[in-house]
TrEMBL record:
Naturally occurring in which organism (per UniProt): Proteiniclasticum ruminis
Gene3D superfamilies recorded: BFD-like [2Fe-2S]-binding domain, D-Amino Acid Oxidase, subunit A, domain 2, FAD/NAD(P)-binding domain
Domain FAD dependent oxidoreductase: 3-354
Name of the protein this chain belongs to: Glycerol-3-phosphate dehydrogenase
InterPro entries per the UniProt record, alphabetical: BFD-like_2Fe2S-bd_dom, BFD-like_2Fe2S-bd_dom_sf, FAD-dep_OxRdtase, FAD/NAD-bd_sf, G3P_Oxidase/Oxidoreductase
Domain BFD-like [2Fe-2S]-binding span(s) in chain numbering: 400-453
PANTHER family in the cross-refs: GLYCEROL 3-PHOSPHATE OXIDASE, GLYCEROL-3-PHOSPHATE DEHYDROGENASE
Pfam families: DAO, Fer2_BFD
C-alpha cells in the first residue's frame, strides 16, 4: 500500500515526487509514456517567469514568484541548465507603455524583485536588435530560462534516488475508492492494481479525465496549442533577454528568447478548439509567428530554423490554477489547469500539494538521509586534465558521437544507465543532447540507436524514436 500515488510525470508530478521524497513516505509516480516529461513539459517556451503577469491575489501570482526563486535553487542542487538572463516586456507605442506601468504595479504587488521601467535608449543598449518601433520596456531581472525536460528528469531521478517508485508505460485507466483507500487500475499488464491512501492528480491535459474516473468532473480542460521555431545557435546572440510583447486576452503573446543551450526560440501562438494530443505544426501558424516576432527582434534568419514544435496548454474552465482537494473525492488532490506559468510554478505547487496532503490527514516526518543533490557528466566543460582522467577511466569518453553538440559515447551510456535512464533516441537526446544540434541527429542518430540497442540488450528494431510505437527501423531491406 502506497501512502501517495502521483499520476503524471510532467514537471508538476516530478516536483511533487521530489518534495514528498524528503519525508518518510511510501510514494509512487505513475506515467503512461515510456519516459518522463512527455507532455506540456517538453514543449513550452522554457521561461522562468518573474511573476508580474498573473492577477494580484491569485494562486498563480503567489506560486509564480515563489517558483521563480525555487527554480534557481533547485537547478543548482540538481545540475539543471538554468540562466537568470532577465526578461523585457516591450512596448511599441505610448499606449502600450500604460500596459507596462500596469504590469510594473502588478509585479510589485505580487512581490517581483528589482523590476524597472526603461526607455528606448537603455533598451537599445541592452538589446541592439530590438524592433524600430520599441519605445520602452519592463525589465524584470529575476526572470530566467531553464532546460524544462532536463529539470523534470533531474527532479524524477532525485525523487527515485530518495525512494520514490517510478512506473513508466503505466496508463491509469480506472480508479476505485473503497473503505477509505484507492485502487488504481492501469494498462500495464505486468503490474497488479496499485493500492494507495492518497492520490495526487498531475495528469496535465488529462487531469479532468482522471478525476472523472472516480469523482465528479469538477472542472474541464480545454487544450490551447502553441507552435514554435527553434533556430540554430548562429541566431542565439540576436537576443540577450527573454523578449515579450505586451500580453493580450490570449496570453503572453509571441516571444523571442535565447535557450539555455544558445539557440533562439520564437513562438508561441495560441490556438483553441484543438484535440488533446494534437501537436502538429502548420505553415499558416508558423508564418503568423514569424511576422509577429519581426516586430520584436530584427534580422532573424529563418533559413537557420532547425526544428518546429507545438505544445498544449492545459487551459481549464477556471481562470486560476486548480490546486485543491477534490470536493467529490476526499484524499484526491487536483493539480490541474496548470497552464503557463506552470513550469516556473511547479516547485512551489509541490509545496502546496504537500500541505494539502497534510491537511487531508497525511503524517509528514522528515527523513534524516534525504539527498538533495544530483550530478551528471558534462565532458566538454571539464578541464584538459579532468578530460584525460575521464578517458583513462573509461575510453568511451574519448569518442565523440554527436559532432554538432560534442557529445561523447561515455555521456550517452551514462544517460541510458542513470536511475531514470533513457529508453529511446529522444530520451537520450533530452538527457545529453545528441541530435539537438544543426543536423538534428542526421549523423549521430544511427550511432545512438546502436548504443541503446547494445546497452539495453535489445534488437535495433525495438529501439523507439520517442514514445511507444514511434518505430525507426522495421526490418532489413536486403537479406
Ligand atoms: C506552448 C506553451 C508554452 C508554455 N510556456 C511556459 C513558460 O515559458 N514558462 C512556464 O512557466 N510555463 C510555460 N508553459 C506551461 C508549462 O509548460 C506547463 O504548465 C507545465 O509543463 C505543466 O506540467 P504538468 O506536469 O502539469 O503537465 P504535463 O507536462 O503535460 O504532464 C502530465 C503528464 O501526465 C501524463 N498522463 C496523462 N494521463 C495519464 C494517465 N491516464 N496515466 C498516467 N499518466 C498520464 C502525461 O503523459 C504527462 O506526462 C507553457 C505551456 C505551453 C503548452
Amino acid at each position: 500500500m502506497f501512502d501517495v500515488a502521483i499520476i503524471g510525470a510532467g514537471i508538476v508530478g516530478a516536483s511533487v515526487a521530489r518534495e514528498l521524497s524528503r519525508y518518510n513516505l511510501n510514494v509512487c509516480l505513475i506515467e503512461k509514456e515510456n519516459d518522463v516529461s512527455e507532455g506540456a513539459t517538453k514543449a513550452n517556451s522554457a521561461i522562468v517567469h518573474a511573476g508580474y503577469d498573473p492577477e494580484n491575489g491569485t494562486a498563480m501570482a503567489r506560486l509564480n514568484v515563489r517558483g521563480c526563486h525555487l527554480t534557481e535553487v533547485y537547478a543548482k542542487e540538481l545540475d539543471v541548465p538554468y540562466k537568470k538572463i532577465g526578461s523585457l516586456v516591450v512596448a511599441f507605442s505610448q499606449e502600450e507603455m500604460e500596459t507596462i506601468e500596469e504590469l510594473f504595479e502588478r509585479g510589485n504587488k505580487n512581490g517581483v524583485p528589482d523590476q524597472r521601467i526603461i526607455h528606448r535608449e537603455e533598451l537599445l543598449k541592452m538589446e541592439p536588435n530590438i524592433g524600430d518601433e520599441a519605445v520602452g520596456a519592463l525589465h524584470s531581472p529575476s526572470a530566467g530560462i531553464v532546460g524544462p525536460w532536463e529539470f523534470c528528469i533531474a527532479l524524477t531521478e532525485n525523487a527515485v534516488v530518495n525512494g520514490v517508485k517510478l512506473y513508466l508505460n503505466t496508463e491509469v485507466v480506472d480508479i476505485k475508492k473503497e473503505n477509505g483507500t484507492f485502487t488504481i487500475f492501469t494498462g500495464n499488464p505486468e503490474l497488479e492494481p496499485i493500492q494507495t491512501k492518497y492520490i495526487v492528480n498531475a495528469a496535465g491535459i488529462y487531469s479532468d479525465v482522471i478525476l472523472g474516473m472516480v469523482g465528479e468532473r469538477e472542472f474541464k480542460i480545454k487544450p490551447r496549442k502553441g507552435q514554435y521555431f527553434v533556430l540554430d545557435k548562429s541566431q542565439g546572440p540576436l537576443a540577450n533577454h527573454v523578449i515579450f510583447q505586451c500580453p493580450s486576452a490570449l496570453g503572453k503573446g509571441v516571444l523571442v528568447t535565447p535557450s539555455v543551450h544558445g539557440n533562439l526560440i520564437v513562438g508561441p501562438d495560441a490556438e483553441d478548439n484543438v484535440e488533446r494530443d494534437d501537436t502538429t505544426t502548420t505553415k499558416e501558424r508558423m508564418e503568423f509567428i514569424r511576422d509577429a516576432a519581426e516586430k520584436s527582434i530584427k534580422g532573424i534568419n529563418y533559413r537557420e530554423s532547425i526544428r518546429n514544435f507545438a505544445g498544449l496548454r492545459a487551459q481549464s474552465d477556471r481562470s486560476d490554477f486548480i490546486i485543491e482537494e477534490s470536493k467529490s473525492v476526499k484524499g484526491l488532490i487536483n493539480l490541474a489547469g496548470i497552464k503557463s506559468p506552470g513550469l516556473t510554478s511547479a516547485p512551489a505547487i509541490a509545496e502546496d500539494a504537500r500541505d494539502l496532503l497534510e491537511k487531508a490527514g497525511l503524517t509528514l516526518t522528515k527523513k534524516d538521509n534525504f539527498n538533495p543533490t544530483r550530478r551528471q557528466t558534462h565532458f566538454m566543460s571539464l578541464s584538459p586534465e579532468e578530460k584525460a582522467a575521464k578517458i583513462k577511466e573509461d575510453p568511451r569518453f574519448g569518442r565523440i558521437i554527436c559532432r554538432c553538440e560534442n557529445i561523447t559515447e561515455g555521456e550517452i551510456v551514462e544517460a541510458i544507465k542513470r536511475p531514470v535512464g533513457a529508453l529511446s533516441l529522444d530520451g537520450v537526446k533530452r538527457r545529453v543532447r545528441p541530435g539537438m544540434g544543426r543536423c538534428q541527429g542526421g549523423f549521430c542518430g544511427p550511432r545512438v540507436l546502436e548504443i541503446i540497442a547494445r546497452e539495453k540488450n535489445v534488437s535495433l528494431e525495438e529501439v523507439m524514436q520517442d514514445t511507444n510505437g514511434s518505430y525507426i527501423l522495421i526490418g532489413e531491406t536486403k537479406k
